[in-house]
Amino acid sequence: MLRVDERVHDLKDEMRRLSGEDLAKCIQCGKCTAGCPIAPDMDVMPNQVMRYLQLNAEEKALGAASIWVCASCTTCSVRCPEGIDVARVMNQARKLCVERGYRPGEGRVPLFNRLFVDSIRRGGRVHELGVVMRFNALTLNPMKDIGLLPRILQKGKISLLPHRIKGLQAIRRLFAKSKRFIKG
Amino acid sequence: MEIGYFPGCSLEGASKEFDISVRKVCELLNVRLVEIEDWNCCGTSPAHASSDELTYLLPYENIRKMEAQHLTEVLIPCPSCLTSQKETQERYRSDKAVEERLVEAAGYRAEGRITLYHLLDFLRDRITFDALAGRVTKPLTGLKVAPYYGCLMRFPSIAIDDKERPVVMHRLVEVLGAEALEWTHKADCCGAGLSLTRPDIANRLLAELLASAKRAGADCIAVVCPLCQTNLDIRQGGLKDGDGRPYDLPVIYLTQLMGIALGASAADVALGKLMVDPVPLLKRKNLI
Q1: What phi and psi values does residue B47 have, to the nearest 5 degrees?
Q2: Which one of A166, B6, B13, B284 is most buried, counting C-beta atoms within 10 A?
Q3: Per-residue pLDDT tens over the stretch B205-215
Q4: CATH of the domain spanning A10-99, picked from 1.10.10.60, 1.10.1060.10, 3.90.1720.10, 1.10.357.10
């Protein structure tokens, strides 16, 4: 049972402040879900995520795996008859999930994101091989895709060593200053 | 013509052939590319999912570098880089809170007036289809191409065509002399980063895409995004069609096809770097 109380608008208001998207406009038509290519693999359908956000059901919305497996293809956003950028809402939900300390419903995506962003902090550019190898090791699957490696290396498609930009100090400064939300 | 050039991390790594073929095509079209000096990663989806501030600060640092080189126009072939750069510039110009925060954090007030091009609008609006047609020395006659847009046209920063039924790449493929096929999945999702984090989901989407292209009678798929290309090409080996047969559908950058049509060699546009070898197909069609 969902408990509806005086805080019912909190999450909706927060989302509007952070992303500019007004969830009150969602009429639950289900078009976002109908067009979502990832929906078959989601635990909570996109329109349900929207409904939970409307109802301040924070744990159900932010704890869903759906907000992480969303590929940001934006089919939902361009089809929403109310003009809500649903993919943008999903992306803000990811940051809120981490900010408010919920356990991500799908841990592999935020782990990958963390390693990717860390790779930028280290070198100023992403080192693809380094990110993939760390990701595979940390998901206890070090041999994943290893069969592809010889051909990828043979074709010179991947750099073995990371590139470090000259202006790395400036990048590090930006990282040190970066907060999660501009309007938070 | 001279224009700034932002390759981005993918074009420096697993998608070098995109970089090589863009440079070759520009050379053949007398476009001089001026690379952004010491450019940094735009942050792309992982930064967008982690921090609003990083989302804008990383591209803002690149804007600073572009302005230091006094560039007024920049070509960004990677759709993810373009989206990050363009959205940052647009938010900087339209949202006072974002503007003030970026200036404060970066210690730099940008002009924010750089015109940013993707390949498709660059080719359509700056090169023009007619000029391109005039440069074709080896028409890709008899090649059936499935142009793949994925999510591209749905992003406001790239949207130069119908969001769900785009045709601009079809027109370009036709200008090169090839046959551009209509297919059901031309604007469907490739799975993006899920190919690494949730390959089960990405493989389902990729199998649907490949089946659709095959159904339409495609010899190959043409792409303009490193993520689309990598997913469809590298993951193809693990996928089978409805009859249990492996796919053998080359996934070729539009700029590689363009290079061939403009008289470049297979090596000039790095065809050898694609995982699904397009050389037998192009030889069979007498194109290389």
Answers
A1: -70, -40
A2: B6
A3: 999 999 999 99
A4: 1.10.1060.10
